[in-house]
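A brief tutorial aside. Many learners find it easier to grasp structure tokens once they have seen a single protein encoded end to end. The record that follows does exactly this for Extracellular solute-binding protein. Read the sequence first, then the structure, and try to relate runs of similar tokens to stretches of the chain.
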Amino acid sequence: MRQHQLNRREFLRLSSAMGAVTLLAACAAPGAAPGGEGATGASQEPIVLRLHMRAGGETSEPAIYVHRPREFTEETGIQVELDPIPAGEYWAKIETLAASNTLGDNMFTDNKNWQHNRAVHFGLIQDIDDFMEAEGISHDEWLPGVIGACIVDGKTYGLPKTGHPAHAYVWINHDMFEEAGIPIPETYGSTWEQYREWANLLAKGDPDQRTVYGFHMPTNNIQMIVNGIRTFGGWELNEEGTASPIDEGWRGFIQTAYEFYQVDKIMPTAADIGSAGTVGLFAAQKLPIMVSSRGTNKSVREAVGPEDGSGGNFRWSAIALAEGPNFNGWGSSLNTHAGTTQSKHKYESFLLTYALSDARFAYLNANEIGYLVGRANELEEIGPAAEDPFIQLQFNQYAKGVPYRIGANYRGLEWEQIIVNTTDLVYLGEREPDEAFFTELETALQELLARPI
């Protein structure tokens, strides 16, 4: 396996090997032409890659959208032009651009609602195996569950910006645990039974009007739902993506959430959480246990202070979410900056895809933002960030990732909406999680999955 940080000289050599005559002209000195001695012609414009991304990333994730692209330009001479699109409009805009044949060169993709695979199906993303082979880049650079999410029908589409396990972490308030006489849990090995026991000990106030809730997990989030199903031993879909059988995983997760919401009344609803959000409740010591994803750690550090309480607030930590005896792996939530099939600079767009997934990218990402990519040797590549206990926890959770199963008709947004709308009836106490409920849920999902693409 060869680790790459492509410099300008190597870029030119590789371009020549690929037969990229136009690229050589674009990267040559001003006035040079590809025809060698005696060639004439005006100087060529530099190559500019247009990168579609979610608006706001340039400020919230500067390592990804400012610092690494700037280095990439310095290394290769290729310029990167960001095209921010509001997150709520992102995929609609991408499909509009594709329909008019005006897609840029690279685009952010994600697969929590199957959109990455939908884009592959409709021919929007280029496969990059030939480019990877030409440069000696191996899938072994990434964890299997992370790179596996990029592989569709044996071909590689994009490389990971990340393949994170989403809601696979639990934040706990040490001071409140000790006050309740609960030993501080180890980083790994907690159980759902323990969460329920702890939450009942920690909750305060009348059950119908809590002053302190015991536990929270976002049951309206598809990443949480998939992880919940898998931790109870189930799968979100069959392997073909044609059905969502309501197995023991679905039943176990929904039943547990129902007990937390309606039987013990230790978990707040969205209305109970209000504008403060779960981090706000955690910081105010009104929520001692909460399940969330990796970005929450930075928010807790900002709201509460250091884990050891040295900032004058309470002590806290993040631990791994319970796995269950038949655990099927966390859903690998893939993000890429894949090259598009409409790019006029496909090789160069591949180079940008790799630069936003390589070891240098991982270093910047971990040290500036606190996120991992999902590279196989990432703890050896990221320098001082590797000493952070939450970074170490992230790495171990990434390593347990298994790619999402993808619906064959790519109707992931609708699939999520049916699940959320239907299960909310149970969580709000309007339905019982009985056999009739599970039959209705499975029927609704089957009807959706039977619809055409």
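Self-check: Residues 169-329+412-449 form a domain with the D-Maltodextrin-Binding Protein; domain 2 fold (CATH 3.40.190.10). If you spotted this yourself, you are ready for the next section.
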